[in-house]
Write a structure and sequence with these properties.
This protein is of the alpha/beta class. It is built from 18 helices and 15 strands. The strands form 2 sheets. It has a 9-stranded mixed sheet, with helices on both faces. The radius of gyration is 23 Å and the shape is globular. It binds alpha-D-glucopyranose. Residues 21-23, 26, 175-176, 223, 256, 387-391, 410 line the site of alpha-D-glucopyranose (GLC).
């Protein structure tokens, strides 16, 4: 006999409706992967998944078609606030959008933390109340990052007396620990949210949304095994390390997957030439055309580095920029694509000015170009100072663009270095996020690149990997089950 498992999946982004970063990939793809798990894997359960996100202005501007579902009121000390819930049409999954005054006229994320705290506190509480409004009791609340942490805290406050939620358990997934949310006790007070009380959480952090989520969750997980270990250390714990260490029994890691069919160099229209492991020799066309597109000298033998992503301190672009300056003796080119912090954009632009015949910096978000970089670049640089999971390294390997990355978080868990895997390596890792370590790994990768026959073997191994969601979705399902059955 099948049994329903109701999962309320609350997150701030979900593609294809809204995606600012990797969180949006997970918001759109993990629930789908869970839904698509074969029945034999979830037996005797059938997962009923509802994804809830804010009805961001950006989604309204894009005019994604929606239909109204329900309206209700959320209680605050300053009076009731109306929540209107819509359902997105044309999606493979039920995705619900919550609207209300604190959500309207805001960017997806704001630089004003009081606007964001209010927006996401309201959203988190409304997501719970939405279940009551449609009379759908969740067995599990699965919330992500600081934006939805208030839902975890609210649930733990009310479930002892609120019979509707008395059986609901919670899972809190950390995608990026340093982003803790703002310190606004007055906003938490307005929504009757208590502060975190665990003595292992430093006093001054107890009103941060991230702290509430960690403290109140039945289980915590993060998006790779290595990151789950790292956050218990002083270097990566951001003040939560003592708490996490003393609650290590409720902390685990599951690597993200990707939708393999969305990343397929043999089928994509935006590439100059499609190719696969069997037609790898066609790949070079993409490199030549890419060099031409960006006005770089067209040279097959010159190693073409690419660096793609948000320009934040986390991503460490500055490390490779400096390393390249120290590698002017070698023959290389680089294309950098992304936007972000001003100082990092300037750092990248200055490299273009110093090496006008070798460096291109494109300051924009451009997904088609990013795909051409993975298809035409020889080596992806990913010098992240920390990386909970990361997605670019997986995509680039599937395209035969070999990663050079810092051995942290999900990078360490998805890339095999020759030192540890002499016969199976798929990329190059360096152990510390500093310039000389990055330089050493980049020099090493160029050396390997000189041996083109061997390089093709590396590409074949990288491209043949399976990064699909199924294995990880199964692990999430098993985790859901164990949380649900715990006392
Ligand atoms: C955050 C992390 C990134 C991870 C993504 C999805 O953006 O920085 O490493 O891949 O979340 O989990």
């Amino acid at each position: 006999m099948s049994q329903k498992m109701n999962v309320l999946f609350v997150i701030s982004e979900a593609e294809p409706l809204i995606k600012v970063g990797g969180l949006g990939d997970v918001g759109g793809t993990l629930p789908l992967a869970l839904k698509n798990l074969p029945e034999s894997m979830t037996d005797p359960y059938v997962i009923d998944m509802k994804v809830v996100i804010p009805y961001h202005d950006q989604i309204k501007r894009n005019q994604w078609p929606v239909e109204p579902v329900v309206s209700f009121k959320v209680l605050s000390r300053n009076g009731f606030i109306t929540a209107n819930v819509f359902r997105a049409l044309k999606t493979d999954l039920p995705i619900y959008l919550i609207d209300g005054e604190p959500i309207q006229n805001t960017g997806t994320y704001s630089s004003d933390t009081s606007i964001d705290t209010k927006k996401y506190a309201f959203f988190s509480i409304a997501a719970l109340e939405f279940c009551r409004a449609i009379k759908w009791k969740p067995d599990l609340l699965h919330a992500h990052d600081w934006h939805t942490a208030v839902a975890i805290q609210k649930l733990s406050q009310i479930r002892s007396y609120d019979t509707f939620f008395s059986q609901t358990k919670s899972l809190y997934t950390i995608h990026n620990l340093p982003y803790s949310g703002g310190n606004h006790p007055e906003i938490l007070y307005a929504f009757d949210i208590h502060q975190a009380f665990d003595p292992e959480i430093p006093q001054y952090m107890r009103n941060l949304p991230m702290a509430l989520g960690l403290d109140a969750a039945d289980h915590i997980n993060t998006v790779s095994k290595t990151y789950a270990e790292e956050i218990m250390t002083d270097g990566f714990g951001n003040g939560y390390q003592n708490y996490l260490r003393s609650h290590s029994g409720k902390v685990s890691g599951i690597i993200n997957g990707i939708m393999m069919e969305q990343w397929n160099p043999s089928a994509e229209k935006v590439l100059y030439k499609n190719y696969s492991v069997d037609t790898l020799s066609d790949r070079i066309e993409n490199k030549r055309m890419l060099q031409q597109e960006l006005w770089l000298p067209i040279k097959d033998q010159t190693v073409l580095f690419v660096m793609v992503g948000r320009m934040t301190y986390q991503k460490g672009f500055d490390l490779c920029v400096q390393a390249l300056r120290q590698m002017r003796d070698l023959d290389w080119q680089i294309i950098i694509l992304g936007t972000g912090e001003d100082s990092i954009q300037k750092t990248c632009l200055s490299l273009s000015n110093e090496f006008p015949d070798r460096v291109r910096t494109e300051l924009r978000y451009d997904e088609p170009l990013s795909r051409r970089l993975y298809a035409g670049g020889d080596i992806l640089l990913m010098p992240s100072r920390y990386e909970p999971c990361g997605i670019a390294q997986m995509i680039s390997m599937l395209y035969g663009c070999i990663p050079v990355a810092c051995a942290t978080g999900g990078l360490k868990d998805t890339i095999k270095d020759p030192f540890d895997y002499p016969d199976e390596y798929t990329g190059f890792l360096f152990s510390h996020p500093d310039v000389s370590a990055a330089e050493w790994a980049m020099r090493r990768s160029i050396e390997y690149f000189q041996d083109q026959d061997n390089w093709r073997q590396i590409q074949v191994r990288a491209m043949k990997q399976d990064f699909s969601w199924e294995k990880s979705a199964k692990k999430y399902f098993d985790l859901y089950k164990s949380i649900q059955s715990s006392k």
